[in-house]
Amino acid sequence: MTETASRDTCLTQKHQCPCGDDQCYIDEEAYEDDEFTEQFGPAEPSFLPGIPRTFGTTKIIPPPYVGQSFQNDDEALEYYSNFARNSGFLVRRERSKGNPEHPLGVYKRELVCHRAGPPLPVKSGEENASKRVRKKKPSRCRCDAQMVIKKNVTAGATHWVVVNFSNVHNHELLDRNNLQFSPGYRYISAVDRERILALAKGGCNVNLILRALEMDKGVKPGELTFTEKDVKNFLQASVSINPENEGSELLKSCKFMKEKNPDFRYEFTSVEANKLEHIAWSYVGSVRAYTVFGDVVFFDTSYRLHAYNRPVGVWFGIDNNGYIIFFGCAVLLDEKPDSYRWALQAFLRLMDGKYPQTMLTDFHIGLKDAVMTEFPHTKHAFSLWHIMSKLPSWFSVLLDAQYEKFKAEFCRVRDLETKEEFEHEWDQMVTEYGLNSDRHISLLFVHRSYWAVPYLRSWFFGGLLATGDLSVKSFFRGFVNSQTRLKDFVEQVGVAVDFQNQAGEEATTRQNHQNFQIKTCLPLEEHASTILTHYAFEMFQKEIMTSTQYAVFETSRDTYLVRHHLSSDGGHTVSCSPSNEEVSCSCKGFECSGILCWHVLRVLSLKNCFLVPEKYLLHRWRRESSLFPKSSGYNYRTQALRSLASIIIQESSITKDRFEYVQWHLSRLLNHIRDMPAADEATLDLELSSTFDATVDVVPARTVTRGRPRKLKGLTKTAKEMQAM
Q1: Which of 136, 155, 568, 666 lies at a C-alpha separation of 20 to 30 Å from 40?
Q2: Is it true that the peptide bond before 629 is cis, omega within 30 degrees of 0?
Q3: Contact residues for 259 (Cβ-Cβ < 8 A; gap 6+)
Q4: Residue 478: its pLDDT value, please?
Q5: Both 616 and 635 in a single domain?
Q6: 588 in any annotated domain
């Protein structure tokens, strides 16, 4: 009834609570800021990814409206599907416009009711003569309910906008309580999968498993989000896997890749009878990227291969354009501290012994101990997103109606300026909500130095501290599914890296053709725009624009107090020594982000500094540090021209004069190009095009394309020559 979901995954989020209680688990899949779903067993044709399938509670979803904006088409599909579930119908992707060759790719989608379109034709009697066919009423009845979305690119930012919405159905809507039996909403969560496997190993048949799950959840028979057939399919898929044989096949795959490309790196350990214990690997481009951007690393261990009951860990970083970089991956036997210690040791060997300055991880006690042992001089912090994802499981039921207010207060206290303020406000918050004896609130406070912002200001995080997009889930989406075997896992990761690498190179090329917009006309801003990438310059520009609202008071020689012009107290202390170009601020903004804070920029402006001191324009944020473009072959030229054509279309279609000007010049340019040689005569055009060879493995996490042109001399010269013709 709905389109096949191509992004099902065999990766599931783990739910072990760091408090150590075996009866306490984390339901991170319910965290609404990062909802996603997984298929199980044989793929059903109507599963839609990203749709939360919870039927125990009612959440009102307002109807979509024309002009409503979404970050991507998946987000729009998820919203419309949630609305449809509450209303009593299912959603199907219908027509789309655009293709990979189009400058905008796919730029329009139609999402329709599952009963849209004319009835499907019935097979003829001759075709059905050899088999009995059950007569049933056609599902489709030309229903006009739909939501049409269109891609919109404004100032380099891409988003999808609702251009048409109709909620008029010509059929009866389904009972919401019966929607769970529709294939489009049947779903087995990761927690239920683990429970099913445990009961099956204990000798329970399918009927007993269903009764046990109904008792666990306190629901009536038939109210689970999956059926008996779904459980049978899941168990059948799980039984058909032989982990030991798959492990040996995985090692063979790694050895083959090593023979194919000697620069491919992997580490592994095995136990009795050559049974695979742990394995970690990286690609040559990833190692090269780590040498430049390995100052901050995010080690995400929050997912596992459920069919093999193995945790998966992936190392990520961030480059100077704000894109996520893949450094390496590991599949471990278990989640014990020794396993994590081995993973960290292996990662260090893969990266030629270079330690990161900062490492972010999930809130996991065993992993914390491993990092402390193996990376003693690396600052370890817990990802703020992972902290926030645990709050619903810990406090939503306990606080009930007060939970949302508590969460807002938690975020305010988390981001306070000083440690003293944090501890004082924390005590007040805990007392106000009656959480003094709660073990989770105590656990958070004991580990406050790993996640509370006042304790982390002196360490560099490069924007990764609060990110939620940086995850195994987003990286593997579309490349690893419920049918992927362990023996194919390394190869599939390589395919994912290659794909994201190409997308990252194309996005970076588009950035290079975007112009900076100077907003303050201050020489400091103009100087920074000539050195920093667009991503880094945006951070710098935000700081320098904010600095114009701050007043400066000299307290002693080369020491200044900077505070908002409407404030009569508070502020931050800035030390500035012009002789040796040394500046520092008590807010520690530069230390945390690598970009000068507005307090320092305000002082530099008043002291008639027209250039940003060289040491405060970090190499990792400069344009020359970019990993892209590094190639000049056919693929790169195609991507670069496609990106440039997209920008030309956007700019030239605004007015008639622009259109006529561009059309005239492009016509002459095309004639000139056709007169040029069709092949390179002097050089042989060779290009490495696979991760297993020598590409830089970068995974883009930003959909916004920004930047300014870097190398347009050749194009400019050609245009001038044509004008002279």
Answers
A1: 136
A2: yes
A3: none
A4: 66
A5: no
A6: yes
Rounded distance between C-alpha atoms, residue 97 and residue 151, angstroms: 10
Q: Which amino acid is at 529?
A: S
Supply the DSSP string of 649-718, one letter for each residue: HHHHTSSHHHHHHHHHHHHHHHHHHHTS-SS-SSS------STTTT---EE----------S--HHHHHH
Domain limits for position 209: 190-238
The answer on 165 and 234 residing in a single domain is no
DSSP assignment of 392-416, as one string? IIIIIHHHGGGHHHHHHHHHHHHT-
Residue 33 falls within a domain, yes or no?
no
Give the separation between CA 68 and CA 50, rounded to whole angstroms: 19
The answer to whether 266 and 258 have CB atoms below 8 angstroms apart is yes
Listed in sequence order, the residues at least 6 apart from 347 whose beta carbon sits closer than 8 Å to its beta carbon are 280, 299, 315, 327, 328, 330
The SS3 of residue 92 is strand
Residues 79 and 152 in one domain: yes
Q: CA torsion sign, 348 to 350 to 351 to 353?
A: positive
Distance (Å, rounded) from C-alpha 637 to C-alpha 22?
56
Domains of the chain: total = 4
Could you report the average pLDDT of every consecutive run of 10 residues in the chain (725 residues)?
Answer: 38 62 56 33 29 43 89 86 85 81 78 87 55 65 92 78 93 74 68 81 81 83 80 75 76 87 90 83 90 92 77 89 88 91 96 94 91 94 89 88 93 92 96 93 94 92 68 68 70 80 69 78 92 90 94 91 90 88 91 93 92 92 75 63 76 86 88 78 43 37 34 36 41
